[in-house]
Amino acid sequence: MNQDNDFIGYLDSALGTLEVCADPNGLTSIRFVKDKSKAPNWCCNTQQAVEQLDEYFVGKRTHFNLSLNAKGTHFQHQVWRALSHIQYGQTCSYADIAKAINNPKAVRAVGAANGRNPLTIVVPCHRVIGSNGKLTGYAWGMSIKASLLKLEHKAV
Question: Is 43 a catalytic residue?
Fold first, then answer.
């Protein structure tokens, strides 16, 4: 098995199936998949993530408390940390994230790092919208992004 995905679990949500992958140090990816193509191989990290994601989808969780071990560049990690500070039910722009990491001219690079976020929902890239207030792209599709934002706004 790929060393980045030593452990795999799945969650069937109202928006689709999430594949949750981890290594011994934490979660390496959370992504929507069409089918469960790999046999589950659970660990405490994948089990805890699935439980917390399930609580999120039913409106019982607004913050995640999980061990994360996403692979990325220093810049990507800066962006992902900034994304993690966007409060539940809130949104911000790529420019806001660029300012938050003290690199206000890096708006496009922030957008690229946002698009490469391997930990969807837990690192809430869906909360980033255009500076004009409109929804922008989302790796898993605009309907899923809109549904996640609606879920959070309804719960708030």
Answer: no
